[in-house]
Amino acid sequence: MKNEKVKFYANPSFRKRERASEEKPHTHQFEIEIKQKEMIYIIVVEDWKFVSMVLDRFFLWVFTILCVVGTIGIIFQSPSLFDTRQGVDRKFSEIPLRKNNFMLPSDIERMTID
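Structure tokens predicted for CSON010467 protein (114 residues):
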């Protein structure tokens, strides 16, 4: 029987289990601290993801509004938009524009080709 105890204590897996049971209270506390830090880290990461999403949406709206306002501003600054005079290409054109229906037939008869 004494010989069996020696074999039992000499078994390396038993020694590992014995050491693990001795370290268990400290290991358990350490695991709890690690889990708490991981949870805090996950909460912080999720908060920053939310902040980045809010900023992304905000800058999307700012960009969209600036593009629309800029486009409208460029279109309304066009001088030909409010100009009611006849265009230079129609005024001094020597080529009849009948096939595109830009001129009436009476205008074409008045134009002479030399």
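The mean pLDDT is 75.
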